[in-house]
């Protein structure tokens, strides 16, 4: 979605990263949603062809236009996203959150509007999904399936970091040599929030093997500071790591449906929780600002709940 940004939108995006501490990835998502929304409004107001929405310029967007936006306009946009763009409930919910955030900023931070039409905007109901994760036996099968090629030590170390530390894929890709601080790992998380996690023996051993057998052989790499590098010495991208996980999933014979780096994070959190980790410790390890997010990762299966009820002393 090319084109010159209106100043109001640019100011909001700067506010997101500099004040709210949002990542550049989140900022781009907000930019996409708001650009689409204002293009949709312009097409609606001016009777233009909806098929040409990506060609519409919004550089002349003014605060007067924004003050005329109604709650009905927003619902019309969400309907368009569902029926024409085929956005699922999750994607539409993100657009609702974007609109709420933008209009809250205009009213609360900039005092540019007196009424906030997005206050009453409701989010689509999301179906509750059980997170996909591996049990301990599946995780061990997954690790055993890592191909012993020239990137074996790197791939094994990365998977051990995922499964032991519950890292986000973006956090793993951003690790540098300086991130390793003795028996601890300094992680730069969402919104540049830093946290330190302890490296257990399994992580220390696989890290030492990677450094000794593979990392040291990369002479004069392009991205020398980063811990995990490609054959060419460049920083691994999230997409590259996702492909590595997908390949291991296939080669191990596990073939777990939709297994991604994020599902390895779910696996780590679930196994730690079932092994006795308390929810507050997990919140710190995973880098969640809200404990309700941690609780999503630590779902307990029905049979375990049944076992707890049956083991109640009053049941004997």
From TrEMBL:
The keyword ATP-binding does not apply. InterPro entries: CB, DNA_brk_join_enz, Integrase-like_cat_sf, Integrase_catalytic, Integrase_recombinase_N, Tyrosine_recombinase_XerCD. GO terms for biological process: cell division; chromosome segregation; DNA integration; DNA recombination. Residues 129-310 form the Tyr recombinase domain. One of its GO terms (molecular function) is DNA binding. GO terms for cellular component: cytoplasm. It is found in: Cytoplasm. It holds the Pfam family Phage_integrase. Keywords: Cell cycle, Cell division, Chromosome partition, Cytoplasm, DNA integration, DNA recombination, DNA-binding. Residues 3-107 form the Core-binding (CB) domain. PANTHER family: PHAGE INTEGRASE-RELATED (PTHR30349), TYROSINE RECOMBINASE XERC (PTHR30349:SF77). This is Recombinase XerC. It comes from Pradoshia eiseniae.
